[in-house]
Design a protein that fits this description.
By secondary structure, this protein is an alpha+beta fold. The chain contains 14 helices and 42 strands. The strands form 8 sheets. Strands 8, 9, 10, 11, 13, 14, 16, 17, 21 and 22 form a 10-stranded antiparallel β-sheet that branches. A 9-stranded parallel β-sheet has the order 31-30-29-28-25-24-23-33-32. Strands 34, 35, 36, 38, 39, 40 and 42 form a 7-stranded antiparallel β-sheet that branches. Strand 24, helix 5 and strand 25 form a beta-alpha-beta unit. Helix 7 runs parallel beside helix 8, helix 10 packs parallel to helix 11 and helix 11 packs parallel to helix 12. It binds (2R,3S,4R,5S)-2-(hydroxymethyl)piperidine-3,4,5-triol (DGJ). (2R,3S,4R,5S)-2-(hydroxymethyl)piperidine-3,4,5-triol binds next to loops. The site of (2R,3S,4R,5S)-2-(hydroxymethyl)piperidine-3,4,5-triol (DGJ) has 11 residues, from loops.
Length: 742
């Protein structure tokens, strides 16, 4: 079993293949103190891990200075207002007006498997794949029972944490004002942090910094995980890099407001916390009710950032994504957004589909603009009625025609939104999230539907369902193009307005749960103005998410690197798009755009009838490339070789089959430097004993080039490396190298 309790010493030890997490119970009050999280220990007996600078960690021996004592104790779940002045994980407002919390251990339970979290996404595992520990503690003064839930996986180095709170009835209502999902106190202070920051079209940029004193955090108060900051935080031990050193990664399985924080204290210890952002959060917990907080995934690696990423990838592929497409090859799609924007009709779409199918593309996705009177983004969200002026003959006719070409059909919807200029808004203005008496703040000329209201969820689901049932639609792009303002719900009383943000997210989850239950064969791609809701929560429902509205191959190097820090390549929506790129105006070779999109789901986002002939002629070889290498990309191990984000010169990554018999390596020369000896590329993840043939992929034929291919041992390829192939000189040029056991 991956979790054990040592009764005499009152120590809990959680083990995964390479990690150990330990905490203990002390004193008659049942304080829960964190002891250790790091490389796996063979024994629970360790020197001095429960001592503080005051000596033995027994609070009752330190009554005179209990405050100072509490302020340096490594608490397993930090409470509020009783002497621990570091930031807390748990705070309330009780009917007497008091906010303090404290926890006393009462009981625990260890069992195989892992419980689901009601109405929310979470990782899952069978009884032989993980073990769960539930610690039940009491806050008697507030009449609350707090359950700390830990699961340790047997096959991946991941531990999950979540929290459940029950009102035991002392008060008829206790307001929860802060319930974070994890809190880990580290004994050292010599760390760097990685946070991800960004903006629209610039999502998940890696930001590594030395951790100084005080609180350092990223958060969202936008109602979604957001373009701007990401529910992720990594702590890196001194000198840790891609392949070496200790790294602790934390990722929140949630799609709404979050906080991810590292705080270095006066005593040179570090507290990491993650959970729902307490700002604008206030949950009424009435007698007998239970509040369940979402889950945090914690991954430790003693082999640098790369190992952390591969562990997250394995965990999410095996224990988070449920879709039947998780491991399956996805159809190569062509999306008409950048091809036509709102200016399309049936004939235009069929002309794109005809040309695309001839070139090997397998699915047409009709994006925004097919419903209501929508010819711009000014109106019609909520009116999910086909615009027959554009789609002459209706949706089914179009889908049937596309199917006749041997192509699948996919559709775009933005179900969570309502345009002020829509029949839906005219009928139900109060269905928008709004504050009575205040002029609503529009964004992209739209408001957000109040999904905290069951009747709005029901109505919204019915619209999506009706469209999906009306024709042979095999893919849905579920978009969400604005963030939440005007926090007010006509469905909640004045006591409960602080529940709106979380209830909104629960509404989104309910919609998507209904969708994947009723349409298990649907390929669902989530999207939010690009990648503003690329988070583990959404991956529980759909196996892929549109990474960014910026599909420029060079900008994507950084966006995809940041995304691949924890998300598998199989989840990253990536397309070959038009040039000059619509977002940044850059022109890159069509070949390079193909290699960069291959590191994701792969597809096209351009008017295939209008691109240059030479580019169009490359598509058959690119589609062949996708089918040759998609298995490796989706299922293999990802290694970062060189990062343009760091060196501002070149980028390279490799994906290796799990059995190490085959790999692909992509090299992108971003900015050519003059007069260097050679660009040496050292591969990773191969078997040092195996012999491999190394060939450059030929974009003309879709085959490997025989000329110049090498046969070398894995150790030589990894430790001595190879020179970057000819043809890479020149800005934005790229090559794909195929490595296969000889
Ligand atoms: C934002 C998405 O990211 C785009 O791909 C496109 O679907 C537009 N919305 C449509 O409004």
């Amino acid at each position: 079993m991956g979790i054990n309790y040592y009764e005499k010493e009152r120590i809990f030890k959680l083990d995964t293949p390479n990690t150990t997490y330990m905490f203990c119970l002390v004193d008659k009050e049942g304080f829960m103190l964190h002891m250790y999280y790091g490389r796996r220990l063979s024994d629970y007996r360790t020197a001095d891990l429960t001592r503080t600078r005051f000596g033995e960690a027994v609070p009752s021996n330190h009554e005179r200075e209990r405050c100072a004592f509490n302020d340096c104790m490594p608490f397993e779940y930090a409470t509020h207002g009783l002497g621990d002045y570091r930031d807390d994980a748990f705070k309330v407002l009780n009917p007497d007006g008091f906010t303090a919390t404290s926890l006393e251990y009462r009981s625990h339970r260890i069992y195989p498997g892992k419980p689901a979290i009601k109405g929310m996404p979470a990782t899952f595992g069978k009884e032989n794949e993980c073990t769960t520990l539930e610690i039940v503690a009491q806050d008697p003064v507030n009449g609350l029972e707090v359950t700390l839930i830990y699961s340790a996986f047997e096959d991946v180095d991941a531990i999950t944490r979540s929290v459940k709170i029950r009102n035991t009835g002392k008060y008829s209502n206790v307001k929860l004002t802060k319930v974070l999902s994890t809190c880990v106190d580290f004994e050292d202070d010599d760390y760097d942090t990685i946070f991800l920051h960004g903006s629209w079209a610039r999502e998940r940029t890696i930001d590594r910094n030395r951790l100084g004193h005080g609180k350092h955090y990223v958060s969202s108060k936008r109602g979604e995980s957001s373009h701007q900051e990401h529910p992720f935080l990594a702590l890196l031990g001194a000198g840790a890099n891609e392949d070496n050193g200790e790294v602790w990664g934390f990722n929140f399985v949630y799609s709404g407001n979050f906080i991810a924080q590292a705080e270095k204290s006066q005593f040179k210890t570090v507290r990491v916390m993650m959970g729902i952002n307490p700002e604008d959060f206030c949950w009424n917990l009435r007698s007998g009710e239970v509040f369940e907080a979402p889950e945090v995934v914690m991954v430790y690696s003693h082999e640098g950032i790369g190992r952390m990423s591969r562990t997250f990838h394995d965990l999410y592929r095996k224990h988070l994504i449920r879709s039947k497409y998780r491991d399956a090859v996805r159809p190569i799609l062509i999306n008409n957004w950048e091809a036509t924007y709102f200016d399309f009709d049936t004939d235009k779409l069929i002309s794109i589909a005809k040309e695309a199918s001839r070139l090997g593309i397998e699915m047409l996705v009709m994006d925004d603009g097919w419903f209501g009177k929508r010819n711009s983004d000014d109106n019609s969200l909520g009116d999910w009625v086909v615009n027959e002026n554009k789609l002459k003959g209706g949706l089914k006719y179009l889908v049937d025609e596309v199917n006749k070409l041997g192509m699948k059909f996919g559709i775009w919807m933005e179900p969570e939104m309502i345009s002020p200029d829509s029949d839906l808004y005219r009928a139900h203005p109060d269905w928008a999230i709004h504050i009575p008496g205040r002029k609503g703040v529009q964004s992209r000329a739209q408001f957000v539907l109040d999904l905290s209201r069951p009747e709005v969820v029901d109505y919204t689901y019915e619209q999506v369902r009706r469209i999906l049932k009306s024709a042979n639609i095999e893919y849905l792009k579920w978009d969400m193009n604005r963030q939440i303002t005007d926090l007010g719900s006509a469905g909640l009383d004045s006591e409960s307005q602080g529940e709106l943000f979380h209830r909104y997210v629960l509404g989104v989850y309910e919609l998507q749960e209904r969708l994947v239950t009723e349409f298990p064969d649907l390929l669902l791609e989530n999207c939010s103005g690009g990648g503003a809701r690329f988070d583990p929560g959404m991956l529980y429902y759909g196996p892929q998410i549109w990474c960014s509205d910026n599909a420029d191959a060079i900008a994507r190097l950084e966006i995809q690197q940041g995304t691949a820090l924890m998300y598998p390549l199989s989840t990253m929506g990536a397309h070959v798009s038009d040039c000059p790129n619509h977002t940044v105006g850059r022109t890159t070779p069509f070949e390079t755009r193909g290699y960069v999109a291959l590191a994701g789901t792969f597809g096209y986002e351009l008017d295939v009838t209008r691109i240059p002939e030479a580019d169009r002629n490359m598509i058959p070889a690119q589609t062949k490339m996708y089918h040759r290498f998609s298995d490796i990309v989706r299922l293999g191990d990802y290694y970062r070789i060189s990062s343009f984000h760091d060196n501002r010169m070149w980028d390279a990554w490799e994906v290796v089959r799990k059995d190490k018999t085959e790999a692909i390596l992509t090299i992108v020369n971003v900015f050519t430097e003059a007069n260097y000896k050679s660009l040496r590329v050292k591969m990773k993840g191969l078997d040092p004993e195996k012999t491999y043939r190394v060939s450059v992929f030929d974009i003309e034929t879709g085959e490997d080039k025989e000329e110049g291919s090498l046969v070398l041992k894995g150790d030589s390829l990894m430790y001595a490396g190879i020179n970057a192939p000819d043809g890479i000189r020149g800005d934005f040029r790229a090559r794909l190298i195929h490595i296969v056991e000889a």
